[in-house]
């Protein structure tokens, strides 16, 4: 039975899920705005309900009393008219009502009451007056509380004549709309001001921690960062600083180790070269010299992949000029390369690293295509560079695999100049160090498109 009821309950939950998705899409994404909503919304709703209930009940009581007093005056006038019927114009009664009671009255002979008008959907005054007239006067009546804005008209049937009474609305009704609106707007502004003042100080350390983490991830200096804010934020900041120090120590140790390895291996290769230079030129010696050259290139590739030039500082760089240099280097070795750039060319990057990233992608494209196109654009806070070739491309299932170190396709699409299979992994590492990424897709001409996208 529970299984049979599941589709029914799922159908009932569809509107709630749809509404939840729409609200989630409309909600602000920042912590500052969300915290304001979480704090302000319940307080404003609670205050609105309490204020509305309190004021509505208070002003309802006031309106009932004012209506009862006005109807009591009208009932006295009716008694006077019934007691002194010999006065045809009721001049004294009209004067007393005007001077003493603040009511404008007139007695209209032989006139029926107007037809009953539709009752307003919500009118405290209409219900209060109707109830009091029926209780105190108990005669046929007609009232108009929605006609003229500052007056209330009441007509009472007195046998063959009609008593017409005009009373000021303030005599019968106490309005609370202006006070309620003023109260809600005023208190909401006070609460909002206090919440903004306190939340700004609480959110700022979190923003500083996020900025410091982003700067450290992109190789920028974060020396002026220190733990601030609440205890939990200070703990997170202290953990970040400890992590940063450990990473910097590891990078320093790795750089020192790689420098020593590089020095020792280059020394050995240099001895090989000197020994080969002393030998007579033979096919075997030429083959050994080529092997030594290959070892030198492979060594440089491995060291570059491990080192990643982490010590290079960021600098404002002209990307248009950088693209032109990469394209010119490729043309110098016989490749057909064109480039263009749109937008602001000045971007803060690690210039040598980023140039190597583009060079790896261009040389990888040159190895498999006849014509290479570089398209760069800087807009909406992002630098996007496309490297398109007209080669055979890469199957979609292999486009992520080629970014693994030493991974090679059958056609060795991932080889760099040293033949180590590290060209694309190095390019992606550099892009990710800048906070972006390198992705592969199909080029417009059917070849391969390598896209570099970094925040700028």
Automatic annotation (TrEMBL):
Its EC number is 2.7.13.3. Residues 260-456 form the Histidine kinase domain. GO terms for cellular component: plasma membrane. Its main location: membrane. GO terms for molecular function: ATP binding; phosphorelay sensor kinase activity. Keywords: ATP-binding, Cell inner membrane, Cell membrane, Kinase, Membrane, Nucleotide-binding, Phosphoprotein, Transferase, Transmembrane, Transmembrane helix, Two-component regulatory system. PROSITE patterns: HAMP, HIS_KIN. The keyword ATP-binding applies. It is a multi-pass membrane protein. It is found in: Cell inner membrane. The keyword Methyltransferase does not apply. PANTHER family: SENSOR HISTIDINE KINASE ENVZ, SENSOR PROTEIN CREC. Residues 200-252 form the HAMP domain. Pfam families: HAMP (PF00672), HATPase_c (PF02518), HisKA (PF00512). It comes from the Bacteria. It comes from Kaistia nematophila. This is histidine kinase. The chain crosses the membrane at residues 31-55, 179-199. It catalyses: ATP + protein L-histidine = ADP + protein N-phospho-L-histidine.
